[in-house]
Design brief:
By secondary structure, the chain is of the alpha/beta class. The protein is built from 20 helices and 26 strands. It has 3 domains: about 100 residues, no CATH class; about 240 residues, no CATH class; about 220 residues, Histidine kinase-like ATPase, C-terminal domain (Heat Shock Protein 90). Strands 1, 2, 3, 4, 5, 14 and 15 form a 7-stranded mixed β-sheet that branches. Strands 21-23-24-26-25 form a 5-stranded mixed β-sheet. The longest helix is centred in the C-terminal third of the chain and has 32 residues.
Length: about 600
Amino acid sequence: MSPRLPHGASYTLLALGAALAAAALSFTALAAQFDNNVYDWLFRVHPAGHRPHEAVLLAFDDRTLMDHGGVRGLRRTLASTLEILAAAPPRVTAVDLTLADPGDPAEDARLAAAMLRLPGLALAAEMLPDSSGWQDPRPEFLAAAEAIGHVHALPGPLDEINRMIALERAAGRDRRFALALEAHRLALGGGAIVSTPSDLESGGVRIPSRQDAGRPLRVHYRPSSTVETLPIGALLADPARARALRGRVVFIGVTALSAIPDRLFTPLSPLDGNRPMAGVEIHAQSFETITNRSFIVDAPPIIPVALAFALAAALAAAFTFTSAPVAYSLGLVLLVAAHTLPWLAFLGRLVLPPFAPVAASWSALAACAAFRFFYVRRQLASSEQTTARYQQAFHFVAHEMRTPLTAIQGSSEIISRYNLPEDKRKQMGQMINAESKRLAQMITTFLDVERLSAGQMDLRSSSFPVSGLLDACLRRAQPLADRKHISLEATAADDLAATADRELLEYALYNLLTNAIKYSPEHTTVRVSATRDAHHHLLAVTDQGMGMTPEEVKNLGRKFYRTERAERAGIQGTGIGLSIVRQIVDLHGGRLSVESAPDQGSTFTIALPA
């Protein structure tokens, strides 16, 4: 069969439609379970290779509990163990036991005294069931600890298989890092853990873990048989074995099947006789993952979606420009590639969810083959709508790229023009770096906005202090204000917290703030405030600019609308920003209101449900 070029548009629409369906289905529970099953299989096929052992597991196994008083004698046995360890102290001792309840006073006093003799002691805390606070160790134990870490693993929501832990959890406004991370911090000298939205840093080790994803760490498990384990009963019978623990990182916890509830299956459980893994071993393996920097990173969600569309486009091109035998051969090659890429990515410690590319390649191949077979010659009715939507997204991105570019230009101009103090130059350099990264994330941000408006994704809601949101926006807008000698003022109650998508809300507030600076004359003041009323949190931006008439206020939020006074004044803009702000506020169930009068400035207020 000869190539049929007039059918190219139809092949393209069929293939991209298949990719779109696969991308939409990739966010369902069915796709998530498929991705998890493939991940677990790859993990078993390529388990973690040989890595140096940094941690030792001291286990309350069944034999130890049976010989030393069971669970009721746990604290007494733990005290004896710590007394032995104190003679040849480990570098770090992490105790994965909840010591929140009072015990026998004499046993508690002995245990507290043993703890005081150990350097680098980290104790465990558990979150209350209602997430309102933490069950911390008793005060006498707390006084001996150098760190408190949470011991919550993350069972899979669909299959209860543990693949990751949360490096950070918060109960109210009280934050706890994971016990494994605290042990790593103490092992490297006890420095502070530095948080950024995309990672954590402990002792110079950067751990990729996004804040908006809940600070996950995929544990690079290795079979339990390779984990260095010493039963506590064996240590008590031969205290001389403690010498081998000098300078090591020791995790102490219960592994007995009859004594602990926190046992979870892992991707390697089929290799370990289908036995669940004790929580203390999960934390020890998490520590090994951090120490050996063997991080398994999730690919950004846009990558599998983009790959799905790329495979579909390649299939469409093959069926458009080649004969049937060549098209089917190329289709088979692309199908193999779709199945191989997640495996190759895993070898590079990158988790590429396979559902979207695999489903897209199969469905696109089937659709194009069926179209070629039945010679379907028609255009899809939704093609113009799809084109218009992507053109609109392009306009949005082109407009919003000006904001970080302006910040970069303003900061670099100030650095080059003035002899600034070193700390100010460093601050400006950090801002230039941050805004440059924002440019790379701009397309992803707007695709998220489009998907939100179409109901294809959920808001990434979290609770956060509003004062921090205001500070972040003011820091980013300060170079713009400095160029016009505009003062920025902010007021917010210290205890005011909002529950919303932090990234989108920051985007909306920053847009209002930069608009206020743009439309204000020099040597004026722009004020930002955060208050509350009976039912709403109110974020207001007030300027001393040219203001607007009531008729102009009614048209605000309409795409591409600009006031006549702004156009006469020669102020550049496209009229898109406020429409995006209104869309973000609507998605949060809030409202955007404007109070303005000519030559008296304007006040834009975002009201969010409290």
